[in-house]
Amino acid sequence: MITYTTVIRKFDKKGEKSGWTYIEISEANAQKLVPGQKTTFRIRGSLDSYSFQKVAVLPMGDGTFIFPLNLQIRKAVGKKQGEMVKVMIEADKRKLQLSRDLIASLKDEPSALEHFNSLSPSHQQYFSKWIESAKTLQTKTRRIVVTVMALGDKKGFGEMIRQYREQRY
Fold first, then answer.
1. b vs e for 57-80, b when ≥16 Cβ sit within 10 Å of the residue's Cβ?
2. Containing domain of residue 116, as a range?
3. What pLDDT score does 2 carry?
4. Are 20 and 74 contacting, i.e. CB atoms less than 8 angstroms apart?
5. What pTM was estimated for this model as a whole?
6. Distances from the Cα of 59 to the Cα of 20, 42, 68, 113, 138, angstroms
7. CATH number reported for the structural domain that contains residue 53 in this entry
């Protein structure tokens, strides 16, 4: 477990990361977490008293990584850009769990399952998290149907979501 205190930062104009709030993980700390790692990996730990797990950190190309702080994390920590936060992290090597309901549904659609299996684990996780984040059984069922149809059409998550939103409005 690595412990340090750092400042919460926010990107101004930086391509696709414009406006992101984040904390930095130095190259030295990243190497302590996962020696030799140059690509995204997952961590678990805490920011102040807020605990988290299976959060992806992103490489910045110079050996440092960033830990993006989404709205849920920022609200839980109760801090914003420029404030200090105590960081306790370690590599989270546990395998990500996919939605059982999604996998069961995909088994009935071989072409959709084949496309799903061709995706990287992180892209598979986008579909799974979207389904599992549904608040009602009706919404979850609708999301599974939409996902299986999109995967059958060889669509990625972004394409599926854009089409889903267009059809709902």
1. bbbbeeebbbbebeeebbebbebe
2. 100-168
3. 95
4. no
5. 0.64
6. 14, 11, 11, 30, 38
7. 2.40.30.100
